Amino acid sequence: MEEIELHLTVNNLACTLMVQPCSTLLDVLREKLGLTGTKQACGEGDCGACVVVMDDQAVNSCLVLAAQAEGTKIITVEGLAMNGKLHPLQHYFAEKWAFQCGFCTPGMLMSCYALLLHNPNPNAEEIRQAIAGNLCRCGSYQGVVEAVLATTKMKHEVSHGGV
Length: 163
Fold this sequence. Notes:
By secondary structure, the chain is an alpha+beta fold. The chain has helices at about 25-30, 90-95, 105-120, 125-130, 140-160; strands at about 5-10, 15-20, 50-55, 55-60, 75.
């Protein structure tokens, strides 16, 4: 099968890659770009381990053909930290014990990041709705809610002269 040329921006870096037409975005991220933070699990869009942010929307990268990502902006879990400093969500995920084994954590982080892009001050129910497609075998959902609420509180305090 002949490869196709794919152009996209991943974690603020422009990429041009040759990919198989049947490759998924998940395949490209993990195999072509070495971004293994995005997890490969069910392959059917049921677990949320592969969630990335594509053009500011949370998507299951296992369900997106690479060709569908042409010209898009992708952010993976590796793209959250900047200059060696954790993103506030990452910081509060650790502080609030929003993970145990960590397998679901990248997908959870990206679902929460996408939520905050559209709703900078979500309530607990909105957070639960945003992570409804992310499965966690360890049951860390309440920690995730607390981490997102702490992130929004910190951002609110910073924007209003606190912290």
